[in-house]
Amino acid sequence: MSAQALRVLLLSQAPQRRGAEVAAFELGAALLRAGCVVRRLYLYSHAGAAALPLDGGDRVLDGEPAHVFERVPGIHPGVLRRLRREIAAFAPEVVQANGGRTVKYAAAARRLDGAAGWALVYRNIGDPQRWAQGIRALAYRQIVMRQVDGVVSVSATTLAAARSHYGFDGVPAKTIQGGVDPAVLAPRRAAVEVRTSLSTSLEAPVLLFLGNLSAEKRVDRVLDWTAGARREHPNLRLWLVGDGPLRSKLEGRATELGLAENVVFIGRQENVGDYLAAADLLLLASDTEGMPGVVLEAGA
Predict the structure, then answer these.
(1) Which of 182, 35, 214, 86 has its CA nearest to residue 222?
(2) Phi, psi angle pair for 209, to nearest 5°
(3) Which of 25, 134, 178, 181 has the CA that lies 20 to 30 A from 154?
């Protein structure tokens, strides 16, 4: 089969606008433009705001990330069964698994199906030592990674960390840094309109956090920095664009710091370019990152 007709299946966690999922979605669009045959699969659904669109052949496998089977044994049999069915029907030549949760499912399908006729490429997006320890790390090293045919990582640092943690020395590996399409980031609203909608004056310094409200992003630090900066700039605003499991806790923390009038929890948004263009300073406080897409977006 010619390269132009390469059949590629992209497996991601959920159709949500987060770094890994957006990168996989845009990769699929680029592959389609190049003449490939592409299907996107998602382990879990996403019913919140700013969901990624599901194109013709895209499928959601209806898993639940908090299901007990995701912890023990680590894979939901029903989700795995649906994944194997989709793979058999699509007959890909390459399956790309974006992130740690997806690669374990793809590896299980590969192992069960034997000589499946497709190559498994794992896209590593961060430092696995942050989440794969003990029995989980052993399972990935001894079982999951032995099914992988190639590894792509978003930075040399994360690739070195993954290689050290998983020990896939005999597997071809490459660093492919991310990029952004400036056209996708083009603002749809003028800065004055965005600020007005968020009760923010044109003179107010605006700090921006853009990402998931989860533990590793350390939004608590962002709030602490904002509280310190407000002493010199009492009219500053902090816009938090994103959502996640720590939202209610962070809302409480903002109140404790006396920031109720300075902080706006905006939630997930489809067009982040509006907020990037209307803010003054991006804040990133994460404990760990691979190649932060938000930094590339802000730079663009």
Answers:
(1) 214
(2) -115, 135
(3) 134
Q: Inter-axis angle of helices 219-230 and 247-256, to 10 degrees?
A: 20
- pLDDT tens digits for 153-192? 988 988 998 888 888 878 999 999 888 888 888 999 999 9
Separation CA 87–CA 12 (nearest Å):
14
140: left (phi over 0), alpha (psi -120 to 50) or beta: alpha
Residue closest to 25 by CA, chosen among 64, 53, 45: 53
Written as six digits, the tokens of 70 are 């995701």
> Residue 61 in 3-state DSSP?
strand
In this structure, the dihedral spanned by the alpha carbons of residues 257, 260, 263 and 267, taken in order and rounded to 10 degrees, is 120
Other C-beta atoms within 10 Å of 44: how many?
Answer: 20
> Please, which residues have CB within 8 angstroms of residue 252's CB and are 6 or more apart in sequence?
none
Question: 63-82: per-residue pLDDT in tens?
Answer: 999 899 998 888 999 999 99
C-alpha distances out from residue 7 to 81, 237, 242, 289, Å: 21, 47, 33, 30
Question: Under DSSP, is residue 249 helix (H, G, I), strand (E, B) or coil?
Answer: helix
Task: Give the whole-angstrom CA distance, residue 150 versus residue 155.
Answer: 15
60 secondary structure, DSSP code: E
Structure-token match 């660093």, residue found: 175
Length of the chain (residues): 300
pLDDT of 1 reads 44
